[in-house]
Amino acid sequence: MLRSSGIASIKRWQRLRRLQLRQHPLCKFCLERGIATAANVVDHVTPNRGDCAFVLGVLQSLCEPCHNAAKREIELRGYRTDIRLDGFPTDPNHPFSRAR
């Protein structure tokens, strides 16, 4: 059984999620590749490390495939490996984009 504070936090998250998807209805990662895809997942930019910065952190709208694959890649490697239509990496943290 959820306590009233747990229910309040769920409702707060639902409001934040609706607002995020209303303001940013397209997947951020797909847009960076030049593709317009509807977002259906609201994701924290900074992964959960058990601190309040996670709760209050910046949100991004993603489609489910990007959330499940590209976001995971960032957490494992520190950068995304997808490329733009011009053939260059979308992520400025990609090793190719680093100064030589």
Give an account of the 3D structure:
This protein has helices at residues 4-23, 28-32, 52-56, 64-77; strands spanning 41-44, 59-62. The protein is mainly α. The chain has one domain (4-97). The chain has a two-stranded antiparallel sheet. The longest helix has 20 residues, at 4-23. The model has no long low-confidence stretch (mean pLDDT 84).
Please give the structural blueprint.
Blueprint: H1 4-23, H2 28-32, E1 41-44, H3 52-56, E2 59-62, H4 64-77
Antiparallel strand pairs: 1-2
Tag the structure with descriptive keywords:
mainly alpha
Summarize the structure.
The chain is mainly alpha-helical.
How many domain regions?
1
Q: Secondary-structure element order, as H and E?
A: HHEHEH
The count of β-strands is: 2
Rounded radius of gyration (Å): 16 Å
Biggest sheet descriptor? 2 strands, antiparallel
